[in-house]
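Regression test case RT-17, inverse folding.

Input:
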């Protein structure tokens, strides 16, 4: 079968790329790029960047592996982004206008590469996550391997091992994973400390021996407390040592409509209880117009930290690396004398997912206690260490453990400091919420939104999702209480937000990557010195957060597309009137559900989206139709409104320098072909959609 390559956008006259059938060869790690190179090069491809030759790529990747030399990939990416303004004369549609979004990702749907061993150097029994899996992993990467019940469970975002787990054949108080780690590691560099169900440190590892990792962990809190004393004389940024502190609490996949203080929003009473967030909102800026420019993890986190849109910062899909050359909120604050720390999920360091993130891949972040990406909310692990990693396994609920770490960090600080805590819930698996935290939502009293097909099963998933939100809210309360106890609250700006929302069955969809309000709208509460109690109208995007927070701190803003809205927050004035949104590259859940590449914009009154082939897709009057049930894009009576919205989108695309290219060409122009192919092989297995390389 022949398919057009996404980089060619399905253009008339473009030659096809043949989908390659692969045998069950034993392909190893070193052959990842060779497997991608097996795809024949397109005869008419003239859109490659200058100098992208075999030898250049090999030298570039050798330099990256060895950790020396200049990062040519990001240098090339910078040239492309800097010159993007030359594309503005194309009316925002880009050179690939006319390409159907269903075609843009289809390099080789028939491509079948058995990759269980492709990039798999795991120990027997370990899970599959990223290139090297650690811990339990629900997704196996293959299609058609699960039975009907298992596939339905994965569709609903439930764990495969829901219910009672088999009792492990390990000593009391230990986890199976911990025993496996001990067996693999020598005593001198063994397993890190375990934490109890409440996140408290266990006295010492079973058997009484203190391993190197355990000694590291037990000294961790003491070092944090001493760090404040060591930094008392450290020069601070403007306006000196009295500069406000900054705490960002980022929950993953928390949709904006599920906040208690928004009671009555969209014409419906809130059923979600968030008492601590509600109190924070009552004393600060409670922004109903919080939005993610790209409703998916990596791209939105890149926008939050840089003030740039995905095509400007390069993280156009999950598991692609953020360029260390970009200025971020962390680098700006670190340069101003702030002590910086990050706890929890990062998801901006490429593959593998389960890893310690080194300083070069977390620009400006000094203190580290997290993992690049993990969805083990129960009995998981994280890595500590500013310059070298130590793995810490814990027993209990991850948000509670992360809050313990945040409390330790706060206790050791002397202002100013910047701390981000990334809670993974309410991200799926939804049933990872402990039973003790599920009691507040009787399923018989719950109702699903009018745009969500109702069922008992759907209500159960919603109950678990809301339980996770309330559990995270309790941890927000703990951090606020600790700031009060330490006398830091009055001089600390606190932000609660999320990287994107969750469809949770609305419009028959799950997860994210769509333009609907459930995916795009996020919580946005900002409280602290200089921020009055207000509910400002308008929008504040994650892309605006870095420049706005720097403005509130009295520091120069960063970013390209993001705006410094600090003056408007101080006065309670209206914020943005419109915000560009999009799905720059369709992948994983979005691609599997038929969601392709799209761009759009939101205002207080409407939502509009266009597909990569130039077709108006969605237009909703969000005031008259808050649940987005009546799509005006296909209504002849609304043709003039659709045309006006499409013209406005073209202008916004031109202003941002977005050529709105199909995924393949965008990845090629950004120099991310190898990174994309590696993530597809590692995470999609025999369903990988690969781009040709030289």
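Golden output:
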């Amino acid at each position: 079968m022949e398919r057009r390559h996404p980089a060619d956008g399905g253009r008339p006259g473009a030659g096809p790329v043949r989908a390659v059938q692969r045998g069950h060869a034993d392909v190893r790690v070193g052959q990842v790029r060779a497997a991608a190179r097996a795809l024949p090069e397109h005869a008419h491809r003239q859109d490659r960047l200058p100098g992208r030759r075999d030898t250049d790529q090999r030298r570039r990747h050798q330099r990256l592996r060895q950790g020396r030399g200049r990062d040519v990939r990001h240098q090339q990416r910078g040239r492309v982004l800097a010159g993007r303004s030359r594309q503005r004369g194309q009316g925002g549609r880009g050179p690939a206008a006319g390409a159907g979004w269903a075609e843009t990702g289809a390099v080789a749907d028939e491509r079948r590469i058995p990759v269980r061993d492709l990039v798999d150097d795991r120990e027997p029994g370990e899970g599959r996550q990223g290139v090297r899996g650690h811990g339990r992993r629900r997704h196996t990467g293959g299609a058609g391997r699960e039975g009907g019940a298992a596939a339905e469970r994965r569709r609903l975002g439930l764990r495969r091992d829901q219910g009672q787990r088999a009792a492990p054949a390990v000593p009391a108080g230990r986890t199976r994973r911990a025993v496996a780690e001990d067996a693999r590691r020598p005593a001198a560099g063994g397993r890190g400390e375990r934490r109890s169900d409440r996140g408290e440190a266990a006295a010492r590892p079973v058997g009484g021996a203190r391993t190197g990792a355990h000694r590291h962990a037990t000294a961790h809190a003491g070092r944090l407390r001493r760090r404040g004393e060591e930094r008392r004389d450290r020069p601070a940024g403007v306006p000196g040592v009295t500069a406000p502190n900054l705490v960002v609490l980022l929950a993953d996949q928390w949709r904006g409509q599920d906040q208690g203080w928004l009671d009555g929003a969209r014409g419906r009473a809130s059923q979600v209880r968030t008492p601590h967030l509600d109190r924070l909102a009552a004393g600060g800026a409670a922004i109903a117009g919080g939005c993610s420019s790209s409703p998916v993890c990596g791209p939105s986190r890149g926008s939050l930290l840089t003030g740039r849109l995905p095509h400007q910062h390069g993280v156009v899909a999950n598991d692609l690396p953020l360029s260390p050359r970009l200025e971020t909120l962390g680098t700006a604050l670190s340069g101003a004398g702030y002590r910086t720390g990050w706890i929890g999920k990062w998801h901006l360091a490429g593959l593998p997912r389960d890893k310690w993130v080194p300083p070069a891949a977390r620009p400006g972040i000094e203190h580290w206690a997290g993992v690049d990406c993990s969805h083990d909310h129960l009995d998981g692990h994280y890595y500590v260490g500013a310059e070298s990693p130590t793995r810490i396994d814990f027993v209990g609920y991850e948000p509670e453990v992360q809050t313990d770490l945040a409390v330790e960090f706060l206790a050791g600080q002397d202002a100013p400091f910047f701390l981000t805590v990334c809670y993974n819930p309410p991200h799926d698996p939804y049933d990872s919420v402990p039973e003790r935290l599920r009691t507040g939502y009787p399923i018989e009293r719950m109702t699903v939104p009018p745009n969500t097909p109702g069922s008992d099963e759907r209500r159960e998933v919603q109950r678990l999702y809301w339980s996770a939100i309330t559990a995270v809210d309790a941890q927000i309360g703990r951090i606020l209480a600790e700031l009060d106890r330490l006398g830091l609250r009055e001089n600390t700006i606190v932000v609660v937000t999320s990287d994107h929302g969750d469809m949770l069955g609305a419009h028959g969809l799950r997860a994210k990557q769509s333009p609907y309000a459930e995916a795009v709208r996020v919580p946005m509460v900002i409280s602290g010195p200089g921020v009055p109690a207000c509910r400002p109208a308008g929008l504040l995007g994650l892309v605006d957060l870095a420049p706005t927070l720097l403005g509130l701190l009295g520091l120069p803003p960063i970013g390209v597309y993001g705006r410094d809205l600090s003056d408007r927050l101080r006065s309670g004035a209206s914020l943005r009137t419109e915000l560009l949104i999009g799905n720059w590259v369709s992948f994983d859940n979005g691609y599997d559900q038929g969601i392709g590449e799209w761009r759009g914009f939101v205002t207080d009154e409407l939502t509009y989206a266009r597909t990569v082939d130039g077709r108006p897709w969605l237009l909703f009057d969000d005031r008259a139709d808050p649940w987005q049930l009546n799509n005006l894009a296909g209504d002849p009576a609304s043709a003039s409104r659709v045309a006006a919205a499409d013209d406005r989108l073209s202008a916004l695309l031109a202003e941002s320098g977005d050529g709105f290219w199909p995924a393949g060409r965008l990845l090629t122009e950004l120099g991310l072909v190898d990174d994309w192919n590696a993530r597809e092989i590692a995470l999609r297995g025999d369903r990988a959609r690969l781009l040709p390389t030289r």
